[in-house]
## 1
Amino acid sequence: MKTYNLLENSEFAQEVGKSSRLIGIDPGKKNIGVAICDSSHIIATPYETIKVDKLKNVIEKLNKIILENEIKGIVVGHPINMDGSEGRRSQSTKDFVKNILKFISLPVTLWDERLSSEGAFKSMEKLNINSSSKKERLDENSAAFILQGFIDYLNK
C-alpha cells in the first residue's frame, strides 16, 4: 500500500491523472460535507454530510464512499483567513488530513475554501431550496463548491 503526504495542487493533479473520480471534503467540528465529481472532472455533486463523532467512524464512512465510487484522490477545503493568513481552523484542517492519511492511502490536497459556505448557500437560493433544507445540506453543498473550484482549476 502506497503512503502519501499532503500534496501541492500540481503534484496532486499529476498523481490522480486526467480521468479519475475525486472526493471533496469540507471538514467541520460537527459535520463533514462530502461531494464527488465525475471521472472527466466536469461537475462536482453534493454527496453526503457525515456527523462528526469518533475518527474511526468518520474514516469508515469515508472509506465506504471512496470504495463505492472508485475515488482516486481527496480535495480538502482549506480555511484560509480573508487576508491569506492561516489560523487555528487551518491547522485543525491540516491535523484532520494527517489523521485520514494514516488510514486512507490516496493522494490528498488542500483547496482554498474562502467563501465556500456563502457560495453554496447562494447557489441553493437560486434553486429555490427551502431554508431548513439549505441548512441540512450546507456542508455537502460547500464540499461541492470546493471540489468544483478545484476541478475548474484542473481544467484550465
Note: The mean pLDDT is 86.
## 2
Amino acid sequence: MPRTFLVIDDDRDIRQVAKTSLELVGGFQVLVADSGQRGLTSAREAKPDAIILDLMMPDLDGRKTLALLKQAPETAAIPVIILTAKVQADRQNLIGQGAAGVLVKPFDPMQLPDQVCEILGWGPSGKDNDRSDAAEE
C-alpha cells in the first residue's frame, strides 16, 4: 500500500502540482488542504505518513500549524516538511520547531518525490531506508 502525503498550501496551483508530482512520479497517495485549519483537521482524520506544509499562509500560517501538529498527540509523530518561497528561510529554526526538513519553492515536480523521500529517509516508492525504523513501527 503506498504511503500517503497531506499537502497543505493556500495556493491551488502549488497544491495541484505537488499532488500530481507525488502521485504520478512518486506513486504516493495524496490528500490536499487549502489552509492550516483544514490541514489540521485532515491530519487528525487521515493520519498521513507525512505532511508538506506551506510556511506562508493567511490566518493560520505554517509555523503555527506546525506547532499545533506537534502539540497534538494524534499528529505529533507525523513528519512535516516545510515548503517555502523564502530562500533565506531559517532552516535550523524550523527543524528545531519540529520540521523534518525544508524545501524551497519553486520546486522541480520531477524531483519532488525524491527530495521528500531523502528528507524522510525513505527509499524508492517510499520504503524505509533503515529497516530498524520499520521494525519499531
Note: The longest strand covers residues 4-8.
## 3
Amino acid sequence: MSRRVLAVVVAACMPWAAAAFTARLDDSLSPRPQVVAPQVLSEHGRPLDDMLGDAVPQYGISRFGRVEYRLATAPYVGKRARIYYVVPAPVQGLRSPAGLRMTWRGNGMFADGSARGGERRLVWSGVVRDPVMRESLDLTMEVRLSELMLRPQGGLSVESYFEIEVTR
C-alpha cells in the first residue's frame, strides 16, 4: 500500500477514533421519576381556564419547582465527561417538537439553560468524581397552545433525560 493511500485511510478513520462515547444516564435513583405539571398558566400569569375577556393566550406555562435528580455515574468515575440535558423530539400531545420549550436553573453543579423538543444542552463538564451525581433543577415548561393536539386519555407527555459523553 502506498504512503498516500495509507494516509487517506488513516485520515478517514481519525474522526471515529477521536469520537466520544455517549450514553443515556440512569436516573432511576431520583426521588420523583416522573415530573407532573402543577397548574398551567398563560403568558399573562393567569390560569388558562380563567381567561374570560382577556386576550387569547398563546402559551401555557408550567412551573415544576425544584426537581431532584440522582444520576448513576459509577461506570464513569475518574473519566472526563460532559453531561447534557435532553428534550426528546417526539412529544406526545404536540404537532411539532418546536411547540415546547423546557427552561431550567441549576442549583449547584449544573448550568442554567433551555431547550426545545429534539435538542440537547450541555449542563456539566469535568471529571466524574462520584458514583451518583446529585443535582436539583428548577424546571419550567412552556407550550405553544396552537401546537397542542391532545387526544382523549392522552395528555401532553414529555420525558426529558440526561446523556453523558465520555471524552477521554
Note: The chain has one domain: 20-166.
## 4
Amino acid sequence: MKLLTLLKSIQPLKIVGDTEKEITSIAFDTAKVFEGSMFVAQKGTNVDGHTFISAAVEKGACAVVLSDENFLPSQADKITYILVKDTHYALGMLAHCWYGCPSEKLALVGVTGTNGKTTTATLLYELAEALGYKAGLLSTVCNYVHTQALPSTHTTPDALAINELLAQMVQEGCEYAFMEVSSHSLAQQRVAGLHFKGGIFTNLTRDHIDYHKTFENYRDTKKLLFDNLSKDAFAITNKDDKNGLYMLQNCKAKTYTYSLQSMADYKAKILEINFDGTTLDLNGHEITMRLVGKFNVSNFLGIYAAAMALGFDSEETLRALSAVKPVNGRFETIYSPKGWVAIVDYAHTPDALENVLETINEVCLHNKHIQRNIITIVGCGGNRDKGKRPMMARIAYDKSNQAILTSDNPRDEEPMDILNDMLTAFDEKEKKKVLVIENRQTAIQTACTMAQKGDVILVAGKGHEDYQIIKGVKHHFDDHEIVKAYI
C-alpha cells in the first residue's frame, strides 16, 4: 500500500522524508519488521519502542511512526519519519486502513465490563450462527472466523491482529462479529479506528487496579467504548449495576437497559433454578436456559437485548438461546458417581466469586436434597492487584462451609506470599478453619476426597485456562482434568 494512502488515516504532526514509497507491512515489534515495513514505535509499560527504531531500520523498515520528537531527525535519506501525537492510536487507525476497514463491512458488537464479557460475546456468536448467519468472535477463550477456531492469547488482541481477524471474517462472508473489549485495550487504543455497530456493558467491580491505579480510572476507561459510539449504533447497559447508567452519559447511540430488579427495556424474573439451568420470565416469555444463576440471567438479558437491536426474530432468538451451553470454564458442572458435584468457574475477582457462591447457595436453597456442604478452592494471581487477595479469601470463607486457599497463577511471586496475603482476612480463630494447600492439584484432590453425597465443590479462578505460570514458566494445568481424573 502507498505510504500516502496510509497517512490519510492519521493526522501527522510532522513528516520528514518521501511519502511516495510503497509499504510492505506494518509492525510494532522489530521481530516482525522486514524490507519495506512501516515500524510504529510505541511506549509500553516496561519498554519504549522508540529505542528500537535503529534496529527496525537495520532490518529494512522504510518508514517510522513515532511520538517522541527526540527521535525525529532533521532530515532523512531513505527513511520516512512520521511524528504523531499518540502512536497507539495511530497504529489502530493504520491497521484498520491496511486491512481495508473491515469493521465497516460487518456489524461489530463490543462487550465490556468486569465479568460476563466472554459469556455474552460467545453466546451472541453462537446465536448468530444458530440463526443461519455467518459470524466471527474475538474472545478470551477462543477466536472464531465463522466455524474456524483460532487460538486466543489476550482478551483483546493488538490492533493489527484485531483487524487481520476482522478482515478474515469479511473475506469468509461474515455478517456479524462479536468481541470482548477489555479495559487494557481501551486504554492502549487497540480498538482505535474500529466502527462498532453496538456496545454492551455487563457490570463493573474491582479489577486491574494494579494497571489503572484507581477504580474511577478503570470505570472511565470502560466508558470510552460508549463515548465513541456513533448515533447509528446502539448501547445496551445493565441497569442493576450502579455504573450502568453512567456508561450512557454523553452517549450518542440509541440506548437500551436491562434489569432483574427494576423497570427496564428488558426485564427478567427467575422462576426456577438448579445446577442444570434456570427458568425465567423475560418480558412475558417463559424460557428455560442452560445457564445458572442471577449473573447469567443478567448476561442472558444483555444478549437478548443485543439480538433485538440487531433485528433478529424474537421467537427464533429465544428458541436458539434456550439450547446454548455454558461457555468453557464458566459455571461448568462435573458430576461424581458418589453424588457430589464440582463446579469449575473462572471467577477471579471478588464480585465474580461472590456471584458464583451466591448462585450455588441459591440452588442449594431451592433444592433441599442436594444441600450439605460447599467446599471452595480459590487462589489469587501473582503480580496483580494485591488488595483483592483478602477480599477473595473472606468471600470464600463466609459463603462456604470449607475454604481451601491454594495457588492460582503465582507468576513471579512466591505462592506462599500470595497465600499469606489472603490469610490477612482472618483472625487466629478463623485461620484454624481454613485449609492452606499451596499445590493446586493437591488442593483439588483434597476437596474431592472430603466431598460427601450432596456436597458442592467450587474450583474457582482459572476456568478455561489450561496452564499455571510459576516463576515465569507456563506449565500445563487444567482444573477440569484434575477433577475428572479423581472421579
Note: The chain has 16 helices and 24 strands.
